[in-house]
């Protein structure tokens, strides 16, 4: 069978068995189509049914989570953990608490995580989990009770050598703290089963910064190869959560000016450059909205999402040299990519997971806009989680600079691995193909080595 038919047959299989999972299908389509050239030159993968095995999670756990809200009423949610692949190590990937969470989204995130983790060069498999719970507007006590209820089931399925969850959208240090406390109480173990912990009780310095910093380090390598840098460049960063804030921090350290950020209500344009201390205070301490930033900062303007043109995300109409989608999946459409291109954008670097739609990706690649794909560019977060696991296992902790240096080296290595693989297969400008092939090859080879399980 040709590699193309093998890929198409596998995608048909997904449509048949996961017919209501369009986001997972989108992600699988991207990966499988990219690895076709490898499958063409190496028939071993088809011989060992690697694709059919790889697109099916090793284990999917779905459970009920019940907690009591502040009014004394029982609230019920879905909890999930998708343990997709343990070919390279214990399942590793974040937990997302957001009302949009469902099995489709978590399968996409866990699938993406397999190849991202493979690219880090560390021994970690791929998983993801979460709940359709919205922490926004909840009291601390409600968040705590929810996290404890969630962990009362999840604790049965995780462990430092089996599955090590971390944070994602809606899960930061506060939620990790409550979940770690519950895990410890249930299991009587103080170990490295969760990452993203606070520094004073087993966390790693620079973990909080790692995804954002890592995305910028990766982009720096890409720009360097083209004789470009960040100095005096205008940047737009979507989102205003963990990834966005530390992307902005590193961009500013490297001399760039970030003029726009967003949240799910709209975006803020600040022509003088985002005041990061103010943004951190609003988002990390006060837990307010970007509209509150505009209200407090002279010259900043808030644009509500109700005013976005249909089919677009308003923030991408802001002219910039470099764009960093750092909010969520499918936040950058074909129209958005065209707007960015028209306004002279030279680089799109993905801090979020799968922020660009498939047609936007195609347009970006065809128009030779520099493209740093998520599974390579944002791998710094999970890599530093693995560094946290190493510190926990050795009962030690490294300084901020030590961790940052290791992260920087990991991102440079991921860039080389990605770009060398792209060149090996004749796709010099296509780091997406490079990342997918390099990530896939290592996992697929391990699956063959480990037999049919
Ligand atoms: P946070 O919860 O800290 O922040 C998410 C941000 O994105 C918030 O500002 C949120 O706004 C915004 N957002 C979420 N959904 C939408 C939407 N539909 N439209 C517009 N804005 C939206 O999450 P993180 O920063 O941790 O994660 C951001 C992305 O990065 C996700 O795709 C995640 O999977 C990915 N990622 C995260 C890693 C990490 O280490 N944290 C590692 C690798 C990838 P609002 O407050 O209004 O919801």
TrEMBL record:
Keyword Hydrolase: no
CDD domains: NAD_bind_2_Glu_DH (cd05313)
Keyword hit for Oxidoreductase: yes
Molecular-function GO term, any one: glutamate dehydrogenase (NADP+) activity
Signal sequence annotation: none
SMART domains: ELFV_dehydrog
Glutamate/phenylalanine/leucine/valine/L-tryptophan dehydrogenase C-terminal domain residues: 204-451
Keyword set, alphabetical order: Oxidoreductase
Assigned protein family: Belongs to the Glu/Leu/Phe/Val dehydrogenases family.
Subunit: Homohexamer.
Stored PANTHER family: NADP-SPECIFIC GLUTAMATE DEHYDROGENASE 1-RELATED
Name this polypeptide is given: Glutamate dehydrogenase
Naturally occurring in which organism (per UniProt): Campylobacter canadensis
């Amino acid at each position: 069978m040709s590699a193309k038919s093998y890929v198409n047959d596998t995608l048909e299989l997904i449509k048949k068995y996961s017919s209501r999972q369009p986001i997972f299908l989108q992600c699988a389509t991207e990966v499988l189509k990219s690895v076709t050239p490898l499958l063409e030159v190496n028939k071993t993968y088809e011989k060992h049914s690697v694709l059919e095995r790889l697109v099916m999670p090793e284990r999917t756990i779905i459970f009920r989570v019940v907690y009591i809200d502040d009014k004394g009423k029982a609230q019920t949610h879905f909890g999930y953990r998708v343990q997709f692949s343990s070919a390279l190590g214990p399942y590793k990937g974040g937990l997302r608490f957001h009302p949009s969470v469902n099995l489709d989204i978590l399968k996409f995130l866990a699938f993406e995580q397999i190849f991202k983790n493979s690219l880090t060069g560390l021994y970690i498999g791929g998983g993801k989990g979460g709940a359709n719970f919205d922490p926004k507007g909840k009291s601390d006590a409600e968040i705590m009770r929810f996290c404890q209820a969630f962990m009362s089931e999840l604790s049965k399925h995780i462990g430092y050598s089996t599955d090590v969850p971390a944070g994602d959208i809606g899960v930061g240090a506060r939620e990790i703290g409550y979940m770690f406390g519950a895990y410890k109480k249930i299991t009587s173990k103080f170990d490295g089963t969760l990452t993203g912990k606070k520094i004073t009780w087993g966390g790693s310095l620079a973990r909080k910064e790692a995804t954002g910093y890592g995305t910028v380090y990766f982009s720096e390598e890409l720009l360097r190869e083209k004789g470009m840098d960040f100095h005096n460049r205008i940047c737009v960063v979507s989102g205003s959560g963990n990834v966005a804030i530390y992307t902005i921090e590193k961009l500013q350290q490297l001399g760039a000016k970030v003029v726009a950020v967003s949240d799910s209500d709209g975006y803020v344009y600040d022509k003088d450059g985002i005041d990061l201390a103010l943004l951190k205070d609003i988002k990390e301490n006060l837990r307010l909205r970007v509209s509150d930033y505009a209200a407090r900062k002279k010259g900043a303007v808030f644009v509500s999402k109700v005013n976005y043109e249909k089919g677009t995300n308003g923030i991408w109409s802001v002219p910039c040299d470099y764009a960093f989608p750092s909010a969520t999946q499918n936040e950058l459409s074909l129209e958005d990519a065209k707007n960015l291109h028209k306004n002279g954008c030279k680089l799109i670097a993905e801090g979020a997971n799968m922020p660009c739609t498939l047609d936007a990706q195609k347009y970006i690649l065809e128009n030779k806009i520099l493209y740093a794909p998520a599974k390579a560019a944002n791998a710094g977060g999970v890599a530093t989680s693995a560094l946290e696991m190493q510190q926990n296992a050795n009962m030690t902790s490294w300084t901020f600079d030590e961790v940052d240096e290791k992260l920087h080296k990991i991102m440079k290595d991921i860039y080389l691995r990605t770009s060398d693989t792209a060149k090996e297969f004749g796709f010099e400008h296509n780091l997406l193909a490079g990342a997918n092939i390099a990530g896939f090859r290592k996992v697929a080879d391990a699956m063959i080595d480990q037999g049919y399980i």
